[in-house]
Protein 1
Amino acid sequence: EVQLVESGGDLVQPGGSLKLSCAASGFIFSSYSMSWVRQAPGKGLEWVSYITSRSTTIYYADSVKGRFTISRDNAKNSLYLQMNSLRDDDTAVYYCARRSQGGFYFDYWGQGTLVTVSS
Amino acid sequence: EIVMTQSPATLSVSPGERATLSCRASQSVNSNLAWYQQKPGQAPRLLIYGASTRATSIPARFSGSGSGTEFTLTISSLQSEDFAVYYCQQCDNWPPVTFGQGTKVEIK
């Protein structure tokens, strides 16, 4: 069974940093590209970042470019999101999601981890 | 960036009735469109990809259609577990991947 379990969400002050993790199991993690998608309270889905299976290609949404860094450790079956210079509008549930091998859609999602940016 | 627009924002439907949700892209995305269902407090779940292909374990009452810029998700006979928010997502021109703002299907 495919499982994605996020962790690391917390309350952080504006300008602070946080690192999210996503532990993957039930599939060959090193064969799949992954993404982070976030959802502000009461709002819709916003794609944040993407990384290919071997980390050769990385993309970011303009809203986080230069502040967030996506990475992965295939030996540990883990995906990460380092978030720096956090702002109030980064407050959201952050989901890790597996990109399907058939196209750029997401066939499995974790349950999410809440990041709250507030003073 | 391709903008995805969903309508209506809220759809009130009685159990057993048909629900029709729309999604429009600001430019053609061919058939590279996915639909997701999200229930309160849960992660999104993939329903449809390639505009019309049901994902694994998705009931046949869910169907998708369209291509280019106009897409439809139809739920043929609403069950109690289908009341949720539905999002479309274009997967044709990226980055960025873009989602619609969602349609909430509520009990009438």
Protein 2
Amino acid sequence: DADVTQTPRNRITKTGKRIMLECSQTKGHDRMYWYRQDPGLGLRLIYYSFDVKDINKGEISDGYSVSRQAQAKFSLSLESAIPNQTALYFCATRGTGQLNEQFFGPGTRLTVL
Amino acid sequence: AQSVAQPEDQVNVAEGNPLTVKCTYSVSGNPYLFWYVQYPNRGLQFLLKYITGDNLVKGSYGFEAEFNKSQTSFHLKKPSALVSDSALYFCAVGTGGFKTIFGAGTRLFVKA
């Protein structure tokens, strides 16, 4: 089984709708991240969490919110989706220590019409 | 500010030839550098990292990277490319905190 899973894998929604993307991990890592990937822009950080009680905004948090329900679960919500939020979204985890690599989920492809 | 640049959007190489994917960085303090690979419809996978020590770092799938402090570069290399190496490659820099800054990515095409 995959260490980091994301649901759904694909989602098409309409402008103004609220949607939630979910991420679960079995690696036992405290640190979890949400990124969005756009062609030519690489990965940009939306939110990150060091533990259940610690949530931090990334560089592009406007229009998004997150919830860390447990060490293993980190959800990303779009309160009112807009077309420029169409992108590929990745969840990632990281072990303790700033020198460790990240482990990524398979991604959620979101299309906002 | 910390940043990382991948100057090539795409690199084309023939199978069996050596490949290089370029990366330059800008950080204050000691750099922590990473390479990740993304295959179609998959998340990013870690290839290798430089923290300290030898300037030549060996990683997964026969890849290696050369750290050059004077040129602030961390180029990814492989002596003999395979068609299966075709993917999107990301260079990244650790910021000294708990965030990672990713480059825009370089698409590698290996032709048979």
